[in-house]
Amino acid sequence: MVAPTSFFGDYGCHVRIYEEARALQRHGHVVRIVTYYKGRTPPGLDVVRTRPTPWHPDYEVGSSRHKVAFDALLSWTALKATLRFKPHVIHAHLHEGALIGSVLSAIRRAPLVFDFQGSLTGEMVDHQFLDPKGWLYPWVCRLERRIDHLPRAILASSHTAAALLRDQFGVDPERVIPMPDCVDTTFFRPRAQSDQAELAAIRSYLGIPAGRSVIVYLGLLAPYQGTDLLIQAAPNVIAGHPDAHFLVMGYPGMERYRSLARDAGLSEHMTFIGRVLYEDAPRYLRLGDVAVAPKLSTTEANGKVLNYMATGLPTIGFDTPVNREYMREHGLYAQRGDAASLAEHIMRALNDAPLRARASAGLRARAEAHYSWDDAARRIRAVYDAVREPRRRERARALEALRLGRSIESTSGESASGRM
User: Fold this and answer.
1) What's the angle, vertex CA 276, arms to CA 275 and CA 280, rounded to 5?
2) How far apart are CA 233 and CA 220, in angstroms?
């Protein structure tokens, strides 16, 4: 796996990389992940890292000009790892990974599978790194289009993303396999009576007063994630529901957002705790009565929603295609980008216990029925088998069957114990 990010960072695409790797290992694969020099290595994973860059050792997540140097180092490290490891499949995450992976694929003659988690240009615009009206924008679009046509198959993180690849970037439909994010529903589960003592201790440690209704957020803190809008919505929520309390978990920029909350008079009703380790996330989420997912992006996945669903949390998000795909009729949808609408839907959930109960049960059931990592691993194995088929017509036929959901079983014993 080629992962052009500081894996493992306890958020977003890192969770997808981590859970895919673990699930594939359980199904007999040997997985090696090549990534940037920062990040922590989860137990049980084989992770190879680049050398650090001496001039920028403490970079933040997201788009950055420094990523050019990081990706140059990643290319060299991935080449060495490929020559030693001799993978049967190159599984590339993100567009930079797919570009690097295409070179490795040609050298090793191993097929390239691209794990698509959102539009490159869309992400750069969301991060305010690229002006959609600027001269550079059409060139980045052309680059993205070129990268999207390199792999033999693309795993799209949502049906929305699959449609984007086909309709906007002209990728052959047969090569685009919807592979939504998933969730471990035994790890992320609703709170039980046996959790009460632990949860009371965590509330006390965090200074959340007894009797407060807790609204949880877990993820990156950034404008495109809707963090600013969440702070703008909070005063209206508290005015209508004085015992509401926001528990905001994530990074970077925690001090900036804490300062904004303080300036808005929210210090007594909003607690920021910074980065939460992935293995600690379930117990912190179980503190919540409702959850918010105010991400603005219409092209990226929104994996936190699945964690909320598995925990049985009634979830309020903006009305985006990905949120609709995940939650269907069980979600609460605010008008995209509207802080007042976000506040209104949070208050609605807090004030309506039967609504919360129905949403909780429906979201949990949907997570269990449709978003299993082991099911995803079986589909990924079948994609590996398909892309390793040397005959183009047979390969296309196998991928088309997978796209239409007609087959998820592996057909090649060799790839079931393969390397990637």
Assistant:
1) 170
2) 18
C-alpha–C-alpha distance, residues 178 and 165, integer Å? 11
Q: Give the C-alpha distances (Å, rounded to integers) separating 28 from 47, 110, 359.
A: 17, 18, 37
pLDDT in tens, 113-129: 999 998 999 888 887 78
Q: Is the pLDDT score of 9 beyond 80?
A: yes
Q: How far apart are CA 99 and CA 151, in angstroms?
A: 9
Closest CA to 124 of 7, 227, 224, 3: 224
403 with 177: CB under 8 angstroms? yes
Angle among Cα 353, 358, 360 to the nearest 5 degrees reads 90
246 preceded by a cis bond (ω within 30 of 0): no
Degrees to nearest 5, angle at CA 28 with 391 and 98: 55
pTM: 0.89
CB atoms within 10 A of CB 35: 28
Determine the Cα–Cα distance for residues 235 and 339; give it in Å rounded to an integer. 10
Lookup result for tokens 């009371």 = 200
Cα separation, 100 vs 117, whole angstroms: 16
Residue 297: how many CB atoms within 10 A of its CB? 20
The radius of gyration computed from the CA coordinates of the chain, to the nearest angstrom, equals 21
Q: Which residues pair with 334 in a beta bridge?
A: 318
**What is the number of residues in the chain?**
420
